[in-house]
Amino acid sequence: MTSTVSPTSTASADATALAAAQPRSGPHAVPPQASGTTDDVAVRVPYPGLLAFVTQVFRARGLPEGRAGAAAEALCHGDLTGFTSHGITNLTRLYLPLLDSGRCDPRAEPRIVTDRGASVLLDARRALGLWAATEAMDLAVERARRYGVGMVSVRGATHFGCAGHHALRAVRHHMVGLVTANCGRQRIVRPVGGRSPMLGTNPLALAAPAGDRPPFVLDMATTVAPTGRVRAAARAGQSVPAGWLQDDDGVPVTDPAAFDRGQAHLRWLGGAPDTGGYKGFGLGLLVEVLSALVPGAGIGPREEETAEPAGPDDDIGCFLLAVAPGRLRPEAEFRSDAAGLFGALLGCPPVRADEPVRYPGWPEDARSRERRAHGVPLEPALHREMLDLARSSGLGFPEPLPPTEAGSPA
């Protein structure tokens, strides 16, 4: 069966509606800033204005309005939550070059190749991953509502930003979302004990409801850190922790610029084999199997070309799964149990009274709510970059918030 995906998903809401969406309820506290964020010198801009600007930039590159808004929401998610290495810093470094080079088709219409009800194979046809993954998860949710589980396997995709953003779409429907993606044929990371790069950073994310508390969101690369954080440190002239990078002889490297010079490579989660590096490597392979092997997307490891990293990360594969517990047992019962699970974690006695126990997703939710209310902080260099882009595009960029509005909440 061959058909075209309908663009009339919830992803096609315009930027204004997206900006007005209310964040989830949760503890009124703001966690420490994410690594690399310098709120003390940052320029804060209103989130609705930032979202509208990014939407307009994508519209100017030929994306339809609804999909441009969905792409902007996915990209700005990084800046809202503190995953700034996957936020608007990638607008000029990654996404506009993708569009301008023709590697990404701004008006692509993903096509359903195979439809088995609860499972779908989708060809993204070089669509911008920021919105294509959103629509794919919405399709998975639609199927999960009918069958209890919905799986959409995607090939022919491009970079989709924060995996957690797409997994969270399932939570809006009281479902569990799982998202994985490989890096197409691009090879960045070496197998444990190997000298040639074979795999990408291969991220995965799982999001689940937590009752009236912030959702649980595990959003991670299977390497110690993603390449974006390494390059962000290099741009800022900062070192990275020992354990992120190592040279060909296994010696730790703390100069992030050595990565792009080819003098250092990323380590898997767990580090050395005797501290769990095989677990990170195994997770990277798990993502490669689900994301690339299942849909027939670009695979990293190739027997005939192992000497050098492959080229651009084209033909990325994605795996999007939505699970609807409410189709298996009473939804109210599931939601009550979820609230109890994550409430128990928050109530765990801490080692230090000033450092309460939190779970993945809680700090990002608190940071997101604070930034929606008081502006999104942009480092001065990034703010200047956005102003330059606005001028060259003939677009307006939101005015910075005055200090009184941009201050921390009470």
Structure description:
The N and C termini lie far apart (56 Å). The chain has helices at residues 15-20, 47-60, 65-81, 89-101, 129-147, 163-171, 227-236, 257-260, 277-293, 331-346, 362-374, 380-393, 403-406, and strands at residues 3-4, 43-45, 111-115, 119-123, 149-157, 176-181, 204-208, 216-220, 245-246, 252-253, 265-266, 316-323, 376-378. The strands form three sheets. An eight-stranded mixed beta sheet has the order 1-3-4-5-12-6-7-8. Strands 10-9-11 form a three-stranded antiparallel beta sheet, with no helix packed on it. Strands 2-13 form a two-stranded antiparallel ribbon. It is 38% helix and 14% strand. With 410 residues, the protein is an alpha+beta fold.
Shape: globular
Q: State the order of secondary-structure elements, H for helix, E for strand.
A: EHEHHHEEHEHEEEHEEHEHEHHEHH
N-C termini distance: 56 Å
Average pLDDT works out at 89
DSSP summary, beta strand count? 13
Helix content: 25-40%
- Strand count, sense and closure of the main sheet? 8 strands, mixed
Strand content: 5-15%
Our count of helices gives: 13
Report low-confidence residues grouped into runs of 5 or more.
6-38
Which sequence of strands runs across the widest sheet?
A: 1-3-4-5-12-6-7-8
Indicate the radius of gyration in whole angstroms.
21 Å
- Name the structural class: alpha+beta
